[in-house]
Task: structure prediction
Amino acid sequence: MNTLWWQTVGTGNCHLVLLHGWGLNAEVWRCVSEELASQFTLHLVDLPGFGRSRDFGAMSLEEMAERVLAQGPDKAIWLGWSLGGLVASQIALDHPERVQALVTVASSPCFSARDGWPGIKPEVLAGFQQQLSDDFQRTVERFLALQTMGTESARQDARLLKSTVLALPMPEVNVLNGGLEILKTADLREPLAALSLPHLRIYGYLDGLVPRKIVPLLDAQWPQSEALILAKAAHAPFISHPAEFCAALMALSQRLN
Result:
């Protein structure tokens, strides 16, 4: 069986698995990994089909979650950013006994706008899917630019994201399309309402992909979860506000222990 690229650093008692977002790879966490490795045993993963885990084709959300969990520690805080938040959430739903806490970062249980639910218009995601086959690299770059828009450090944050993508071979088009399909169709709002694990949701106030309007809606649906909104952050809060991001995770770890 193919194995995912997986790196473990740090010697903390608490295991923390970091799952990246669409089109990217685990290098995106380098801006916070040194700080986090001083407190956690940190697991950096390239999701199936992405980065150094390119030997995998497109997968469903459930398949991706199972594949990642197969290499995971027995018990950990599972943190997912954006698309990775759906993967981490699916793991928490399917195998709660392996999850100490769930952390979702700039992620939504339902990325697509639906009746009365704020999100990305499905036709926008469909447009990205169409454009992938026309101009692959430019489409990925446009999507990355959307993630930092509005922040004070938008230009340098976008450069960092772009360099993370370009540092490794690009994912296959079918893998990127599969990821967009998950973003377009997944809806975990109801299943996650029944989750009794500790659940921290971190948002960027300026996020153009995961609108802050979902925060009070989920507060009402998921009273057992906790939300943190970083006022000047957009879709990549750990890049624009690494100190606040790390502090939130360390505070969570102290509460769990």
About this structure: The first helix runs from residue 30 to 37. The chain has a mean pLDDT of 94. The first strand starts at residue 6 and ends at 9.
